[in-house]
Here is the input.
Amino acid sequence: MVTLTHYIVLSTILFGLGAIGFAVRRNAIILFMSIELMLNAVNLSLVAFSRYRAELNGQVMVLFIYAVAAAEVAVGLALLISLFRHVREVDVTRINILKG
Amino acid sequence: MDLYFWIFAVMAVAAGLFTISSWEPLSSALGLLTVFIALSALYLHLHAPLVAIFQVTIYAGAILVLIVFVLMLLVSPGERMRAIQENASYRVMGGILGLSMLGLLAAGTKGVSDLICARSLPQGFGHPSGFGDMMFREYLLHFEVVSVLLLVALIGAIYLAKKNI
Here is the structure.
């Protein structure tokens, strides 16, 4: 019998993986992928709660998260392209042009 | 149907690990795609077919393609591509991805019975009609705000990606 707890634990593990990836990796594009992983973990918990409570609110909320994720990726990748034109680098530890 | 959950849960976690640990960003993207597909199968399990479809079309279809597109633009693999393709882990990941797609397809056509039940589901739970009804009645303001957000993101992305900034 699969219960709500299973889904919440899975969601937590995925969120943790995303957070670890965001903290450890240095390639900016992989950082974006880690953020997507975390957003997906949140979506999973929302849909699981929606099923648990037999209400559709969670699923509608997931749709809004999709829109926010799309906006985030579009702006983030545009920033990345703009930055890459200046410094020719995607390693975030070497991008220090804001340093005084 | 416990097995269904465990297959896709293990697949999602393994692919997530692969995503954050792989050396090559392109293999990372493949791992992320596998996570998306596995989660989409789990959404079918949770009586959210519409969300499962959105997961495949928006995440796997649009966002990931955008990421791979920028990846190719910035760090073009070129010659390294051959080395990646001959890498065994890449092929294993591709095999897992194909299997998960197959599983998703089978589950989608057969229909998955419910598992976690606190209360009984209303008729047609998660179908587009109820979904749209809720979205355009209770969440109409949110919907409009999101449309403005998308417009702002669109303009911002075009401006930021311009040549002379």
